[in-house]
Design a protein that fits this description.
Elements: E1 6-10, H1 15-26, E2 30-35, H2 38-48, E3 53-54, H3 60-67, E4 72-75, H4 80-94, E5 98-100, H5 105-122, E6 125-127, H6 132-145, E7 153-160, H7 167-180, E8 184-188, E9 191-195, E10 201-204, E11 213-217, H8 223-226, E12 236-241, H9 242-249, E13 268-277, E14 280-289, H10 291-307, E15 315-316, H11 319-322, H12 325-331, E16 336-341
Helix pairs in contact: 1-10, 3-4, 4-5, 6-10, 6-12
């Protein structure tokens, strides 16, 4: 599939970055690992036999060298509030597509706000949040919408068996918390709202085999940026199983540990997306193993489709807008199980 095309991976030595490098190799691309930590890059290069290029977001020339000759770049380095804009700028200078795996709500909103006009004018492709959070939910919501042009509400319920966060997840969460000044965020009436309300606990009717589970309501994820960026839905809500939310908030929850030959953790997930319009309801469900591992095929599939021209638009676009959502989801069948209802 990759036909030897070179793809730069910024933050390649991180937990998700390593999955992305492996997925690129599996699909015939040539990854170029990059990042600011020379020691970690050297170690990754010696393990993989790949050429590594040190670069830092505060050194544009180093980013230019890292992207030289690449057909695309995947940014896996959080916090994306710090890294997204400089790497996008470098991608625009290089004239190559940019994809990231940001789950940070404000960072993704910044990408749409600051780069939409410039990217479209340049005919460039910038796809933020091409990951488990933001990308997968958007693809599922788009597929569920089908021929509807509008809907009243979308609900994205995350049924995670557990959540052992990486150091990058914790760092990104800290930055997002600082940007919100302790407030919570939700998407209502067509806009992001910041508030201090307590989050409700309720029961979500996940389909089998998971079944009904207690979830934290308005546990807001990046879907509140990606879905409304192109779908006419004024109310987008996301939910998280109570157990996973507790794992994330506990300071002593360990990082994910590999349990198989692919390096995946034992964590399982079920994402249940419901869109409603009037009295009608449509649903899309995806399940699989390890939210960090499944981000890699999402991001690499996106790069493959961009480079082969299988896109619907350019500029800054979320997954559901730029790709054929049902077709994209079916292409992920080695990694997720999918069900569209009806």
């Amino acid at each position: 599939m990759g036909s030897g095309l070179t793809v730069a991976v910024f933050g390649a030595y991180g937990h998700t970055g390593r999955f992305v490098v492996a997925e690129l190799l599996e699909r015939g691309f040539v990854p170029v690992p990059s990042g600011r930590d020379a020691g970690k890059l050297t170690k990754l290069a010696s393990e993989s036999g790949l050429e590594a290029r040190q670069a830092s977001v505060d050194d544009p020339a180093s980013l230019d060298r890292a992207l030289a000759g690449a057909a695309a770049v995947i940014n896996c380095a959080g916090p994306f509030a710090t890294t997204a804009a400089p790497v996008i700028e470098a991608a625009l200078r290089a004239g190559i597509p940019y994809v990231d795996v940001a789950a940070e709500i404000e960072a993704n909103a910044d990408t749409f706000r600051h780069f939409t006009d410039r990217a479209r004018a340049a005919g460039a492709v910038v796809v933020p949040a091409m990951a488990f959070y933001g990308g997968l939910g958007d693809l599922l919501a788009t597929a569920a919408m089908g021929d509807w042009s509008t809907a009243d509400e979308a609900h994205v319920a995350y049924g995670l068996s557990s959540w052992h966060p990486t150091a990058g997840t914790r760092a990104s969460g800290t930055v997002s918390g600082q940007r919100r000044a302790g407030r919570r965020v939700r998407y209502r009436n067509g806009r992001l709202e910041y508030h201090h309300d307590d989050l409700p606990t309720l029961e979500w009717p996940f389909p089998g085999p998971m079944g009904p589970r207690a979830v934290i309501g308005e546990f807001t994820m990046a879907d509140v940026v990606t879905i409304p960026s192109h779908l006419s839905i004024p109310d987008v809500r996301t939910y998280m199983t109570v157990e996973a939310a507790r794992d994330l908030s506990a300071p002593d929850t360990p990082a994910p540990a590999p349990v198989d030959q692919h390096g995946r953790s034992a964590q399982t997930f079920l994402v249940d997306v419901v869109v409603r319009s009037g009295g009608a309801e449509r649903r899309a469900v995806a399940s699989g193993q390890d939210i960090y591992a499944v981000t890699a095929p999402l991001a690499v599939e996106a790069v493959g489709r961009i480079l082969s021209g299988r896109t619907r638009t350019d500029g800054v676009a979320s997954a559901g807008e730029i790709f054929d959502a049902p077709e994209f989801l079916r292409a992920l069948s080695p990694h997720i199980s999918l069900e569209l209802r009806p």
